[in-house]
Structures are given as structure tokens and as C-alpha cells.
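Renewal narrative, Specific Aim 1. Our central claim is that a sequence can be written position by position from structural information alone. The example that follows is taken directly from our test logs and has not been curated for this report. It begins with the C-alpha cells describing the chain, in the order in which they were read.
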């Protein structure tokens, strides 16, 4: 006698991953069971699971087609108000707000740029608080600094940013600000030492120290532009800090990293101990990580003995016992005074005591 298979049995089989094709031929399916199998076969037999997207790192880098710069008034206006640039304007305003809230840009200080073409740069205007900008405040300039679009006058220091863009093709955005600790290094003309903190070596590389030049001048643009080839963070003597990155978020991170690094060094220099370093061998490992992340470093390929040269860095306070006081007998000897002075003190003391008796 043939076995009768009900709908309930088929449902259980399918739920457990069974295949109707595996059912023996000498069975009888109830009408409901037949309907379930038919529906299952029409649906593609197997429910396809959606493939989970692979985890990503968001990329905010703006790219353009070489030779496609807008070059007529109408094309420039359309480009300046395009959805793509509106997104970048919003990002610049957000970065400006962060700089302002962290006291990196007091008053109308600081400026921000994004390269948006072979010869085009989106930038902040002059004389405006970076914490209160709107997208309508921003400007578009060419590589000569000529303003092409925007109702507010562009910042005079955009030429310094353009200097970096000219010398370093990987630079797509720049942030200039006056973070207090890094600016203190700038005022004191102190180049931050290397080989201290791993994260600084990986994400910043060697911080550059540029001599002072008048802001907004061609000379300053030339000096900073040349330094931008090997340094993503540059402390500008008696001025502030400028950083560059593949996008404006990246450039802003470099600014935060630079000031926190300088703050840590400043605090450490007053703890009364020498500031140690990780050594050249360990630094080479960090440089390899930096290179794997796609960030160049001018120190790659240098010998271990050439790395970690911090002889010019002078911490504020180092507590050490002087050599002549390290042994007890030397300490006693160092405290002994001139014999003639000792005799004079003794004579005066005796005289004073004799007068007190009388």
C-alpha cells in the first residue's frame, strides 16, 4: 500500500531544507501537499539569501575628469551651484564649525579649501567666523587666485593652499587654523620631535616647521607649497598650522592630530623626565604601515641610525641630580664654606651671645 504524504509533512520537510525531488515515487501526495510543492518550485526552489555588503571605509575624495574645468561664465555658474559642489560646501561649513568649537579658529581666523578641478578651488571667504558660515558664503577661484564665483570676497590666504595643490598632486583639500598648542610650537619655532607616539607617525608623518613669511604673499605660498611635498602637517613660524589630505575631512583630522600631539609633548616635557622614543627599528615598522595605507613618507628608505634625531628638541623641565651631588661625601664637601667666612661667622655668633647674656 502506498504511503500518503500530507501537506504538514511537506511543510516540515521544506522548512528543514529538504528537496521535493528526493521524495520516493511510490507515495501519494494529498492535493494540499501537491500545491505546496508546486508553489515551492515556481518560487525558484531555494530562497536566495541576500549577500551582505562588505564593510567599507567611506571615501569623501572629490574627483574630476582632467581637462573638464568649466571655463565660461555660464558653465562656471552652473558648476558652482551644482549638487556635487553643494555637498562640498556643506562639508566645508561643518569643518569650519568644528574648528570654531575647538577654539582652533578664533574671530575670523583660519581658512578651508577643496580642489575641484585642474585649475579650480572651492574656498572660504575673508573676514568671516568659521563657526557661522553657510554654503552661500563660499567662493570659487582659479589657480592664480582670481575669484570666479561667490558673493563674498575670497580669503587672501587661498594662494598658500594653492601652493600646496601645485606642488603636491595628492593634496585635494587644505585646512589652516590656529590650534593653541601647535601654534605655541610655531611661536617658539620648535619642530615637534618624532618617534614618540605611533599614531602620530602613521597618520601625520614628520611635522614640518616653516620659517615665517607674510601670510597671503607669493613667497609664503612658495615656501609652504614646497614643504607640502614631504609634510602633510606644517607648522608655520609665528603663524599657525596648515594641513592637507585627500579630502577635507582627512585634512581636518590632521589638524586635530597635530594639536593633540603638540599638547601631549608640552605636558610630557614638564613631568621632570626625559622624553624617550621608540627607536629607529620600530619607526620603520610604522612607516611600513603608513605606506600600506597609501601615504607617502620622505623617511622611507632611510637607515635606522638616521631616524629619530630629536637633538634640537628641548623639553621645558628635566629633573636631574648634578654629578657633584651624587655621592654623600661629595655632598658634604660641596656644602663646606670658605674657612675665613666660617671663622667670621663664629666670632660674630660668640659676640652676639655675650651681649645677650649682659
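The sequence written for that structure reads:
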Amino acid at each position: 500500500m502506498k504511503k500518503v504524504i500530507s501537506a504538514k509533512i511537506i511543510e516540515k520537510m521544506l522548512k528543514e531544507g529538504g528537496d521535493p525531488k528526493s521524495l520516493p515515487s511510490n507515495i501519494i501526495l494529498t492535493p494540499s501537499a501537491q500545491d505546496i510543492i508546486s508553489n515551492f518550485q515556481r518560487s525558484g526552489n531555494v530562497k536566495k539569501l541576500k549577500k551582505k555588503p562588505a564593510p567599507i571605509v567611506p571615501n569623501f575624495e572629490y574627483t574630476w575628469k582632467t581637462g573638464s574645468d568649466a571655463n565660461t561664465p555660464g558653465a562656471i555658474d552652473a558648476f558652482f551651484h551644482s549638487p556635487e559642489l553643494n555637498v562640498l560646501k556643506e562639508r566645508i561649513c561643518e569643518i569650519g564649525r568644528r574648528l570654531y568649537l575647538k577654539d582652533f579658529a578664533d574671530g575670523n581666523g583660519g581658512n578651508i579649501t577643496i580642489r575641484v578641478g585642474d585649475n579650480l578651488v572651492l574656498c572660504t571667504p575673508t573676514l568671516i567666523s568659521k563657526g557661522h558660515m553657510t554654503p552661500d558664503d563660499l567662493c570659487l577661484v582659479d589657480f592664480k587666485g582670481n575669484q570666479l564665483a561667490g558673493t563674498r570676497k575670497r580669503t587672501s590666504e587661498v594662494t598658500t593652499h594653492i601652493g600646496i595643490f601645485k606642488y603636491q598632486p595628492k593634496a585635494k583639500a587644505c585646512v589652516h587654523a590656529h590650534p593653541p598648542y601647535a601654534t605655541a610650537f610655531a611661536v617658539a619655532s620648535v619642530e615637534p620631535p618624532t618617534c614618540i607616539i605611533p599614531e602620530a607617525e602613521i597618520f601625520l608623518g614628520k611635522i614640518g616647521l616653516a620659517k615665517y613669511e607674510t601670510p597671503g604673499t607669493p613667497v609664503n605660498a612658495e615656501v609652504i607649497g614646497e614643504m607640502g611635498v614631504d609634510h602633510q602637517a606644517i607648522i608655520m613660524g609665528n603663524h599657525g598650522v596648515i594641513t592637507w589630505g585627500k579630502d577635507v575631512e582627512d585634512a581636518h583630522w590632521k589638524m586635530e592630530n597635530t594639536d593633540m600631539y603638540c599638547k601631549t609633548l608640552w605636558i610630557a616635557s614638564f613631568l621632570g623626565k626625559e622624553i624617550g622614543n621608540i627607536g629607529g627599528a620600530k619607526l620603520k615598522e610604522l612607516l611600513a604601515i603608513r605606506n600600506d595605507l597609501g601615504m607617502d613618507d620622505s623617511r622611507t628608505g632611510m637607515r635606522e641610525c638616521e631616524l629619530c634625531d630629536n637633538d634640537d628638541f628641548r623639553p621645558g623641565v628635566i629633573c636631574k641630580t648634578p654629578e657633584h651631588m651624587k655621592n654623600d661625601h661629595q655632598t658634604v664637601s660641596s656644602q663646606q664654606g670658605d674657612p675665613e667666612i666660617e671663622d667670621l661667622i663664629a666670632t660674630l655668633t660668640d659676640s652676639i651671645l655675650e651681649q645677650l647674656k649682659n
